[in-house]
Amino acid sequence: MKLLEDEQKQKMAMELLEQYLQFKQEAEKDGDNKKNKKEKDPLKPKRPESAYFLFMNERRAALIAENKSVVEIAKITGEEWKNMTEKQKARYAKVANEKNEKYTQEMEIYKQNKETEAEIAKKEEDEVLKVLKQEALQLLKKKEKTETIIKKTKEKRNKTKNNKNDDPNKPKRPASSFLLFSKETRKDLSKEKPDISNAQLTALISVKWKELGEEEKQRWNSEAAKAMEIFKKEMEEYNKKNVVETPKNDDNQR
């Protein structure tokens, strides 16, 4: 059992290493894609119309009613605007200036929000990379030892398997507090970020676990402790049953 647990831990460690390398590669790829491709942001304020376009839009309905084409509307309004006095244009210029001032203010807020979002995203990404890098560096140092342990464990397990079959009725060891937290958090993050990779998801869960306060962690520790108590009682009953059944089998053999 001890060797089997060691093997599982080492396998998990190797998976984390692979996930770090994969996440790093994806992060670099995403960065290159963002540089080469700029997506339109629906939240970005739209640039306001100029004084001329305000005038043209005002005249458009009347000209359409006269069955004028798009080209004709542009030509007619262009000539009319050209022949208008500065006083006549002033009304449209005033509205255009007001809209432009509002646009400038909205753009300033938009830029500040984008900078804040970028800082948060960068901080989160750095935290994830930091955690993965630390784990990966530790795993690299233990790589040779890990392979040896896995090899010996497999040999030991194969020998044991030939002599003893696993009992399907034996109680299963419950999940740890971290695994309970991981299971629930994975569901929530998958809904919030459906496009996130498995490597990023695993790393984010690890970061969130480390950021939990003592009270929050206590909830998961309590759940794990309750499950462990149930497991111990079930194991006690299981062992008692096996002790009782074993002599009967020995008597039958005699």
TrEMBL record:
Give one Pfam family. HMG_box
Give residue ranges for domain HMG box: 45-111, 171-239
DNA-binding region (UniProt annotation): 45-111, 171-239
Q: What is this protein called?
A: HMG box domain-containing protein
UniProt entry keywords in alphabetical sequence: DNA-binding, Nucleus
Origin superkingdom: Eukaryota
Q: Name one GO cellular component term.
A: nucleus
Ranges of Basic and acidic residues compositional bias? 183-194
One MF annotation (Gene Ontology) recorded for this entry = DNA binding
Q: Where is the composition biased (Basic residues)?
A: 153-162
| Species whose genome carries this gene | Ambrosia artemisiifolia
Q: Where is this region: Disordered?
A: 25-49, 148-194
